[in-house]
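Let's practice the habit of predicting before peeking. Look at the sequence and jot down your guess about where helices and strands might fall. Then scroll down.
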Amino acid sequence: MRLGKAAVGLSLLVSACAGTGPVGDVKPGDEPELTTVEAGLRMKMDEAERSFAASALIIKDPELQDYLDGIVCRLAEKICPDIRLYIVKIPYFNASMAPNGVMQVWTGLLLRAENEAQLATVLAHELAHYKKRHSIKMWNSTRNTTDFLAFFSIATGGIGYGFVGLAAGLGAAGSIQAYSRDLENEADEIGQDYLYDAGYDPVEAGQLWEKIKGEADAGDRESTAIFFASHPPAEDRIENLKSRAEAYPARPLQAQQRADEKFRKLVDARWQGWVEDLIDTGSYEETLFVIDNLEKREFSPAALDFYRGDVYRRRSNEGDLDKAKEAYLTAAKSPEAPAKTYKNLGLVAKRQKEDGKAIEYFEIYLARYPEASDRFLVESYIKQLRQP
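Done guessing? Here is the structure:
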């Protein structure tokens, strides 16, 4: 394999690094010596961050940003000033920490977490990786440097690697893609301690992992979610978190209830866009699993029926168009149905060769939304369907 310039530069840098640097916990304001591997890794992550920070994937949402920053500081107050958190518009379940203090939170995590404690579970887990310098330990324990150099070539120069290329590169490079079982267990346990110390219910850690395992099992492929690949939601891991949760002293959780109200309000205002992004990935089985969980959490039934219809319409397995029509018609009974419900009903009828129905649905859509941005397109459908 031929390595890119970034990897060659890192190769020279690593060759010059005689020491590994500090091996203890990260302290507030830590700056590794320039002759250490940690300094080299941070340098490459700083380089990646400069491109990453300017990416169109980064969400500029001050309200959500302040909220997430607040959770990080609640979990790890002392190192909070050293963490730079980015909200990333990618619909898979993921969060990550790079060794230079960059934290990514993907919108897919925000969509799937049922409450603030579950969200904090993942952030605490990543903070534990960072505080314990797990990425440095993984580097130092690896002998096949060529594999790592090839990986960093993607991480620092792989902007063209498709939908998740840049974000996945930075996040995966920060965690060296997959930690050992021992380091994962350590991050689970320390993260759960952070969770409890911050006033959250530690039971939520096991419950979150159990749900994520359910989504991974529901998929019709090994998994499309990067977090699943590097953090396998194994049965023994779930059982360990459940067992540890029982050992913490019980206490009132009124503060968590108030936090959950704020979490739900923030998600309510944003979740539909996140579901649309998830549907766009083509991960249809996983999307249906997520929609079913959103239904259990009492999100808008009309919107959920609409999105089920979108999944079936776009998946197009045998019988899916009938399922899509049924879901859209159910959504249309509610005044809360998304604007495109009748348009998409028209698209289904058009594909089923029900021209009269398609025209009827398209006309209802245009009558209800005369200023629709796609009006010209829908009118062209109607004109086409009326031609003999």
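How did you do? Residues 1-18, 143-164, 170-177, 221-225 have pLDDT under 50 and may be disordered.
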